[in-house]
Amino acid sequence: MTLTQRTAWLRLFGVGACALGAACGGGAPAPSVGPSSGGPSSGGPSSGDPSSGVRSAAPQADGDASPTPWFEEVAARSGLVFQHHSGYSGPFLMPEMNSTGAALFDMDGDGDLDAYFVQGGSVAAPESNTRGNALFRNHGDGTFEDVSAGSGADDRGYGMAVSTGDYDADGDLDLYVSNLGPNVLLRNDGTGHFEDVSLAAGVAGGVWSSSSAFVDYDGDGDLDLFVTNYIHWSVDSEVHCENPSRVQTYCGPNTYAAPLRDTLYRNEGDGTFTDVSADVGLGAAFGNGLGVVAADFDLDGRPEIFVANDGMPNQLWRWTGSGRFEEVALKMGCAVDDQGRAKAGMGVTVADLDEDGDEDLLVVNLTGEDDSLFRNDRTRFVDRTAAQGLSMVSQMRTRFGVGLRDFDHDGRFDCYHANGRVDHPLTPPPGADVFAEENVVLRGLPNGRFEEVLPRGGVAEAMFATSRAAAFGDIDGDGDVDILVVNRDAPAYLLRNVAPKRGHSATLRVVGANGGDALGAAVELVVAGRTRRMEVRTSESYCAGSSPSLHVGLGAATQIDEARVRWPNGAREVFGPFEADAKHEVVQGAGRPAR
Amino acid sequence: MWQARRTSLYVGLCAASLTGCGQDVTPPPLPELGPLFSVDEATRSELQRALEALEARATDVNAWVDLARLLDRHELYGAALATWEGAAALAPGAVEWKVRAGAAAVRARDFGRAEAWLQASVDAAPTERGAWRRLGELRLEQGDADGARRCFERVQALAPKAHDGDAGLALAALLAEDAPSALAHARAARTLAPDDPYLRHVYGSALRLAGRAEEALPHLEVGLGTSPTWTDETAQGDGAVGELALVERADALAADAKLREAAELYRRVIELRPGDAKVRTRLALTLAQDGQVEAGLALVDEALSASPRRYDLLLARIDVLRIGGRPEAALRAAEDATRAWPDRVQAWLVRGVLLRDQGDLDAALACFQSALTAEADNMQATAMAADIHLRKHDYAAAATVLEGPLVDRARRPPLEYVQLLLQAQKRAGRPEATLRESLQRARAIHGNAARSLVTAGGSGR
Questions:
Q1: Res A4: pLDDT
Q2: Disulfide: which of A69, B57, B206, B446 matches B182 by Cβ 3.0-4.6 Å?
Q3: B28 and A11: CB-CB below 8 Å?
């Protein structure tokens, strides 16, 4: 090998001339490779993250010289130790890349958030799964105990997602677990013990399901169940995929050309469900469904159901009133982005970002594809991703879990992205997990734009993992929103919110007549003359169930002046005022009549 | 105008080939390609060779461009950006490499550098439409509607009859939520390119913004999943386009049987790079395809007079003769070539094809076997030998010849090859299990792409 060959070979593998002992500090400088004026070598326009070209929110607090973390990872310290197992053992089996989900919910009615994790296992040999899903009881102080054994919740299917909802209207939240294969409905007895009622209820399904949502689509007072289905897949149908440089990697969903119709189960009110998917028109559009959120986008009193599809146009199902759904995403402007591209929709969330009384929609996608922030104008959606500063920063990583919450109590929604690649990077991240990425926190600004919070992910030390589900809720009861993140083949994160607070907040638990969380209730919150809408829901993000309580960032305001509630049955009441920095219950029937 | 453009291109070329202009230049540092974690051994080797070639010709901008293109092809965007930046540094007078660096920075999602390179491009060449358009697209991503509008106004002013200016202005208006302006520009763009489906998406979006969702829907449906038709600046008909881009355009035209237009572009490149034998042979072949055999031969012979022992030129001469309908002369030239280079495969292959086309299957087979003697694992020679066996109805021999390479996954026989093998195995009466095994191997090598093969083979999963 000649010297030329040798140096070229070494350079190819990232070993510079310094490693060969050549002088690195002296000699004539080589010509600059940046443009002479305003070029990269002279700094360019970016004053923050040089790789993304977006500004970063540092320092975070007025007068601070150094960035302050917003979150502290406390999973092990809190006893919330969950290790996910994808089952990867050589062959690339696609389900290994998608999993899995988690939920934060009060399983035993003691007022704090317990945690539920969905486990993977072995895709090829699910019968060999020895680890089931995991249930952790919150002691009330943010520390946890594993109570999986004997809980009845430790299902051993190859798990994907979990959603929570009180399907039997007994006042507690039940669990629906999506699997690769039959799904599981776990009825909660109110004490944290669960019974698998899937077969009796008729909701087992049998395909590859993903996120699901309990939603009263027909307005009959009980919660129906919408289940997104991903693709028709089996171990036998797996194929060999390679990246452009011919290294084997996981396939994309469109490789299989096998999208599925989603499933809608109508709650019959007697503990059973009927699959009405075909009857209500869901067969009009198939997709690679991953994320789902239900919201009354057009304020007609009935929820629409938005499905984020992976590599295919999203769907927005609108109830027509004649017993069927109409798919209106393209017409309404949320099927594809403003360039007409169908992106790899994964996680989805909603929030009334512009405080105009309806909830806007945020869908997160693959690296190289930006988020899709669709502003809801009630008769249409407008893609505002770039206008609100989310385009460049979001496309740097592959996002799955997502949430819009006011983490720093400044009265504006911030955003959390749980990230992790689905293919091999050119340069491996630190650690053994080649798919790992850092998560990202974005702070909402007064001008409606978002900017990244540094240090990245809001944590003091860089944390790399292949993150998937993110569930949101106040785990330690201190009045701010914490985050639970599931990581592929790694321990979960429990991110305790330690963000420097810029104002106040209040938390409302919206309680229906049966004493349970009133999923589907819509609340207009009036704070210092501003009105924002929040709906009570648990299903959002990716494969996750979050706390149904409404966390309201108040900024400088010291109270919620008024909460106008539209209950799922259409009744309206007014509550409040509610003082800041406290938790309140809004109970159906206890309010003032709406004017 | 033409004279002006020639001068401009010549200046760029001079800057691009600094050693040829009598200047003494220190090359930029070679790009650091990093650990190339997600790259297989074959690609690593390919990149290593390219890097060695670059190191040997570190002051030749074309070497930088070649490597950058290779890196782009493998989607190694960070390294491609560094390499395009090297080209731009070597040839500071050539705007094209600045634009390419800007485009590479966008692909690498290094938006700070993208902004800087594209701004530098338009500063250096205010009439460079491609750079203005890319800068406009970047402004759209930044959410800067005003900035985008200003860029696309320049794009439009520089070529009012091209649709990208109006389309960009429509997108800027959509970002600004200015429905009347979006509609007006979308309409104007559609007038200029009525068949462009992407413009249907833009027009539909403008209608929806204007509150005309029902009217928008059919346009949105047509435009769903389409992309801008101006993604590659080399597709543009005007602006200061470099000679490599010209070659790409010419290749595309030739592939599309637009031979006269392709030939014209090749000629323009030869004027700029008279020593480029590759472009000369491409022009010669294009002329031959267009019936101008003598002109094609003259081009090759002119080059051969300077380098009579150049193998590639001799092969090109054979091809010109063959394409030009002179098989006897072509065969004589091929015989000369195989005599001169008995260990070179391509000459044997060409000679074999000529013999096959004349119906002399035995002689053709002997040529392909000679090719295999020279290079035992040559896939093309294997396939051609098998093809002769098939023509001679000796299916077992064809299958035997073809089965070897499929066993060796590293050789990655192309899908067409596998198709030929399946045909041979079927006709040879190989057991169903053998066919299934071949299919499985093909799937292991080609993955998804082999699905159609499975269907074509009549044996689904």
A1: 36
A2: B206
A3: no
**Residue B200 CA, distance from chain mean position:** 28
Tens digit of each residue's pLDDT (9 = 90 or more) over A339-386: 899 999 999 999 999 999 999 999 999 999 999 999 999 999 999 999
A40 closest CB neighbour out of B112, B141, B220: B112
Instruction: Point out the residues of chain B with pLDDT beneath 70.
Output: 1-25, 34-37, 231-245, 271-276, 306, 406-412, 415, 445-461
Q: Determine the Cα–Cα distance for residues A3 and B56; give it in Å rounded to an integer.
A: 11
From B33, B74, B92, residue closest to A244, measured CB to CB:
B74
Shortest distance, CA A396 to any CA of chain B (angstroms): 7
Q: Is A1 on the interface with B (CB under 8 A)?
A: no
Q: Please name the residues in contact with A62: beta carbons below 8 A apart, sequence gap of 6 or more.
A: none
Query: Taking CB atoms and an 8 Å cutoff, what residues of chain B touch A369?
Result: none
> Using CB atoms within 10 A of its CB, is residue B3 exposed (0-12), middle (13-18) or buried (19+)?
exposed
Q: What residues in B contact A339, CB-CB < 8 Å?
A: 201, 227-228
Q: pLDDT tens across A534-576, in order?
A: 999 999 999 999 999 999 999 999 999 999 999 999 999 999 9
Q: What are phi and psi of A572, to 5 degrees?
A: -125, 140
Give the residue-averaged pLDDT of A14-18: 31
Q: In this prediction, what percent of chain A has a pLDDT beyond 70?
A: 89
Helices (H) and strands (E) in chain B, counts: 25, 0
Does pTM top 0.95 for this prediction? no
Contact yes or no for A44 and B143 at CB 8 A: no
Q: Report the side by side order of strands in the sheet with A440-444.
A: A56-57, A450-453, A440-444, A414-419, A399-405
List the beta strands (DSSP E) in A25-143: 56-57, 71-73, 102-105, 114-117, 134-138
Name the nearest CA neighbour of A73 among A455, A394, A432.
Answer: A455
For the beta sheet containing A325-327, the strands, ordered from the edge strand earlier in sequence to the opposite edge, are A289-295, A304-309, A315-319, A325-327
Q: Does B74 touch chain A (CB under 8 A)?
A: yes
CA distance A357 to A523: 10
pLDDT at position A23: 29
More confident residue, B451 or A305: A305
pLDDT per position as a tens digit, A66-76: 689 999 999 99
- Chain B residues whose beta carbon lies within 8 Å of the beta carbon of residue A239: 443, 447-448, 451
- Name chain B contacts of A386, Cβ cutoff 8 Å: 140-143, 175
Question: Does B82 sit within 8 Å of A33, measured CB to CB?
Answer: yes
What distance in Å separates residue A477's CA from the closest CA in chain B?
38
> Which residues in chain B have Cβ-Cβ distances shorter than 8 Å to A53?
110-112, 114-115
* Nearest CA-CA partner of B94 in A30, A43, A35: A35
This complex has an ipTM of 0.86
Question: Strand A348-351 vs strand A360-363: parallel, antiparallel, or unpaired?
Answer: antiparallel
Asked if pLDDT for residue A500 goes beyond 60, the answer is: yes
In angstroms, the CA A370 to CA A454 distance is 20
Alpha helices in B290-431 (DSSP H): 293-306, 311-323, 327-340, 345-357, 361-374, 379-391, 395-407, 415-427
Q: Inspect the interface and report whether the beta carbons of B56 and A4 lie closer than 8 Å.
A: yes
Task: Give chain B positions within 8 Å (CB) of A340.
Answer: 198, 201, 205, 220, 223-227
DSSP letter (8 states) at residue A16: -
Q: Which of A488, A417, A399 is nearest to A99 (CA)?
A: A488
What pLDDT does B280 receive?
Answer: 85
Question: How many whole angstroms separate alpha carbon A287 and alpha carbon B20?
Answer: 58
Return the CA Rg of chain A. Answer: 24
Does A3 score more than 90 pLDDT? no
- Residues of chain A in contact with residue B116, where contact means CB-CB under 8 angstroms, are 34-35, 38-40, 42, 44-45
